Amino acid sequence: MRPCRDVEAAFTSWPGVDYLCRMTVATTVQPTDRAAKARARLDELRRDPAWVAERSRGTKLSRRYAELCEQFATEVGAASLTATGRMLVKQAASLSLRCEQMQLDIVRGKPVDVDTTIRLTSEVRRILGTIRAKAASDATGPSALDRYLAESEAAP
Fold this sequence. Notes:
Layout: H1 7-13, H2 18-26, H3 33-46, H4 49-56, H5 60-76, H6 83-108, H7 114-140, H8 144-154
Helix pairs in contact: 5-6, 6-7
């Protein structure tokens, strides 16, 4: 059955179909002024560069993740980080973020698996220790193996 376009014609020409026509007319969604105002406001905001810059930063969690990555990289010397070091920094930041979420759950009184919390904090500590040790060994100079190889190449 096709929807009724002319309600009056439906009432007079098809007996018993008036209920269907009333349903069709009643369920039609009409645009409201509220929706038009909201679209206009959103269009206005999208033209504002400050709003776009803030919006492009993502969610609170993604901003916090970026902050942790920056802090960890700065702490160990961002200039000396290799691809592996950057990956470890990102891993430590994501695990730290999860630890912070679990700490908030503890404060809010939600149940938290204590073993998982301990494992995560230990893993973050171990990853950051690895990064720091690598940065410290790079800062002290070439390793004994590098010195030996350099000497053996120099000697005829």
